[in-house]
Design brief:
31% of the residues lie in helices and 36% in strands. By secondary structure, it is an alpha+beta fold. The chain binds copper (II) ion (CU).
């Protein structure tokens, strides 16, 4: 398992948090997702043999947010 933090712009409310959480959770190999709205940070715990940080970041972009750093 790997744990990474992704900086995401564009999340403004609980609905955004829910959208990002569900999108990332829909990927294979995700163990846990948590979003800190104040820090604009998405923490992802994932299995490196099944997914990677680029896949997770792409998914966040796909649902309408901007990945600032990963
Ligand atoms: Cu929102």
């Amino acid at each position: 398992m790997a744990q990474k933090n992704i900086q995401v712009e564009g999340m403004t409310c609980g609905h955004c948090v829910e959208t990002v959480t569900q999108a990332v959770n829909s990927l294979d190999g995700i163990n846990q997702v948590s979003v800190d709205l104040d820090k604009k940070q998405v923490s992802v715990d994932f299995d490196e043999s099944q997914t990677d940080i680029d896949t997770v970041s792409s998914k966040i972009v796909e649902v309408g947010f901007e990945v600032v750093s990963k």
